[in-house]
Protein 1
Amino acid sequence: MAIPILQETWSKRRPWRKFLTEKEMDSLPAIGVVMADHWAEWHPDLCREIQKEQNLAEYFKRRGNDLADQMDRLMQQGLGEDQAWEIIAEDLCVTQAM
């Protein structure tokens, strides 16, 4: 499954470095990487809040896997990959800790 991740996001900006190590980031599923990158840049207070309560890498791993499963289910129901991505992208960017 291809996830639209911009190479420049990964190699240049790296806002996630404020919260995660390279090893932790490498352990995340692709959707978890997108989520960690987005949240670190746009919702750093939320990242700090989650970090106080639980391991942030584990949180992104769990949420990334959940969203990947949701995307797979949507595609099995007949949606195209781009359509499924648009639906889960909304959840990916939600700013409430779950």
Note: Residues 30-92 form one domain.
Protein 2
Amino acid sequence: MESKTATFDQRWVAIGARFAHRMRTVRSQRGLSQAQLGAMTGLTRFAVGDIESGARQARLPEAVFICEALGVGLGDMLGDVDPVLVVEQRIEFRPHAGGSR
């Protein structure tokens, strides 16, 4: 019998996926390009794209800068996430192993 409790890794993936989705949605609603959001936060447009696509996760300071630039609270960006649902939908989010902004 499988456990219904999400593992730490599943929760990590779900939180990252939620942030990336909300970031892309809010950025688009604000009429900002990835390059414009990058300029507002000190990130490159490539870094913004990588975060939005799930190629990497935003570090906490980056997440705060992104939220400030978009005029959204960090809690609103993270929202309520059902990690089991995210994993069942096979949303892939690869944690970033390091590197620069």
Note: Confidence is low (pLDDT under 50) at residues 83-94.
Protein 3
Amino acid sequence: MFDKRLLELLDADRKYVVFMVICNLLSTVSNIVITFSICILVNQLLLGKTEVTDYAAPFILALAAAAVRFVLSLLNGRFGAKLGTNAKEMLRKKIYDKVARLGVRETDDLSLARLPRWQ
């Protein structure tokens, strides 16, 4: 489940969350297709089918579904990385703004110069 407070902070980046959910749903469908194809192949083996054409369609279907799942996994990773980068940048900016606004005095442990400024 997504954290509601974090989602509120991600106004412009909610699209990446939606894209990730869609990729995960389509990956699940691809897994079901792969499992279905393997079941058909095993059924053909148990029935004693010897023709190559009996095995070609389920095999090609399983390969296509595996390729789709691979592409969806890549896209999901890219969306997640982009979302994480944007969230980290936004949180750093908010923390710096809050520290600057509160006027925390500098100590040996905390220096405002060491905090990154995000414009």
Note: The CA atoms of residues 7 and 14 lie 7 Å apart.
Protein 4
Amino acid sequence: MAFRNAAQRCMNPKHPAWPDYGGRGIKFLFESFELFMLELGLKPSPKHSLDRFPNNDGHYESGNVRWATAKEQMANRRAYRPRQNHVTHKTSHEVSNATG
């Protein structure tokens, strides 16, 4: 499912998420499902989904994909910006971890 969905986001201009993926030039470079599986293995849990990491602006390709939880992906998104609190400079992810 992740293989097909990521490929569609990057290659199908009619896919609703295409403007954020293929429309930005992000490519799906796995030539086969087998190569995709060799890179990632099975999805560890239902809480995991496909993530482009460490380069979120990079392509879906070997060395730039992982299975990640929603919390891990929140720290790796385009809209992620550091936030300030009244005492120190912390990201919203760090504040969330500190406060639960």
Note: Residues 2-99 form one domain.
